[in-house]
Amino acid sequence: MGRPLNTHATINFACTGCDPREAVKAFAKIRQNHFGKWTTRQLPPPLRHEATGAYAFENVRDDAPFLTLQPGDDHNVHVHWIVHLPPGCLKAFEEKLWRWVERCCNGIHDAKAIMITERPAAVMRNYVLAGCDPKWAEIYRATAQPQGMIVGGRRSGTTENLARKRRIERDRQDKKVRPLPYQGGSKSIKTHRKSALVD
């Protein structure tokens, strides 16, 4: 596809005015209403592209998951979001992201609300896969760990161009076979379900 996932943003909803039970919805607004439009309409024409990325929510602090999310409960709901940015767009993305989070999360009250880094893909991959189902951990060479209570939507996902349906279509065209877990170990079959982060 030619769009490496080269930027890792962490948004900590505990540092915003967002109800942690609404964090998934707030993040969906950031992705769909702002980031998607920015990448396809607002970047200079040669840099415009279909938004490309993946995300995973966590509700942990110091490796201890929060198992409840009732009003008033302590929490550390945050999302790891890895995206493709064209060269030279990091500063503009960071400025935009602060605005988007402030708008979609009822304000920001701590400078630790957003952290953006450019990391190797393998490091970012580990953040996204930390909460995967243990049956997939062996295939992905990941360590599955409880990532705490998240409500209101999906814990993880990808942009449409990295989604399972598109991946299956590309794999069929390329005659690519991917491993799937099954009871007793893993095997390779021609129907695929694998993270879009791993080729």
Automatic annotation (TrEMBL):
<feature type="region of interest" description="Disordered">
    <location>
        <begin position="150"/>
        <end position="199"/>
    </location>
</feature>
<feature type="compositionally biased region" description="Basic and acidic residues">
    <location>
        <begin position="168"/>
        <end position="177"/>
    </location>
</feature>
<feature type="compositionally biased region" description="Basic residues">
    <location>
        <begin position="189"/>
        <end position="199"/>
    </location>
</feature>
<protein>
    <recommendedName>
        <fullName>Replication protein</fullName>
    </recommendedName>
</protein>
